[in-house]
Amino acid sequence: MNLQEFLDFNTICPMCASTSLVTIFHSPKKQFLIETAAEISVTMDMKAISSYGNDRNYEIEFVFNKQNNSYVIEFHHPKGNNFDGHRIDDYISINMIDRFKKFDFNHKGYRFTRKCEDCLKYEYHSGDFKLDYKTLNIGELFITSESYFLYNEYKNIEYHLLNTYHPIYTPFSVLQYGVRTIKTNYHLLDHLQLPLIKFTTKEKMLEKFEKLVLFS
Ligand SMILES: [Zn+2]
């Protein structure tokens, strides 16, 4: 599928019905993403990527075409100096290109994620891809997984279902939170491998998971 189809795969959060799923490239940290009708542009600070050499504040911008999955990489001047974030059109040093290649190598691969930022209980992912410098195209995208978090407030238990499609496997975890439901303070109560579960409604899923845990 092309990037537009990936974005359209789900536009409404199945957990809270929010229509504001956000798009994330690679990692939500240290990026600035703009979506237009035709493109997605992601800007990252070189300073965040690497701390060696000069040019450390230059920015990298990835511009993805939503229809044909092609992309371009652009370099920008650091913000705050005379050129204040302007694109570098005339001269890109070998040093900057080397730095970029190292940064790209460190990332190992990329993927797109769509996540509900209203409830934080649903997200879906593309498969991993590498940046092919020859074709300048990220290739066909596919949905590799969907992740659902369902919370039972009476038991202070959260169910996490990860439907994974390539290859198919479905890990299911049951987490019990400690005091004040601090996210990092939890016990893994159970972990199962399930057949793919088609998501229906939050209520029906909760019911299903309650039974699963009962008999596991
Ligand atoms: Zn939501």
Enumerate the strands of the largest sheet in spatial order, edge to edge or round the barrel: 1-6-7-8-9-10-11
Helix content: 10-25%
Bound ligand species = zinc ion
Got a strand count? 11
| Element-level helix/strand string | HEEEHEEHEEEEEEH
Task: Find the structural class using helix and strand composition.
Answer: alpha+beta
Low-confidence stretches: 48-53
Q: Work out the helix count.
A: 4
Describe the structure.
With 216 residues, the protein is an alpha+beta fold. The chain folds into 2 domains: 3-126, no CATH class; 143-215. The chain has 4 helices and 11 strands; from the N terminus they run αβββαββαββββββα. It has helices at residues 3-8, 46-49, 94-107, 202-215, and strands at residues 21-25, 31-35, 39-45, 59-65, 71-76, 112-116, 122-126, 143-152, 157-165, 168-177, 186-194. The protein has a 7-stranded antiparallel β-sheet. A hairpin with a 5-residue loop joins β6 (112-116) and β7. Zinc ion is lined by residues 13, 15-16, 18, 116, 118-119, 121-122.
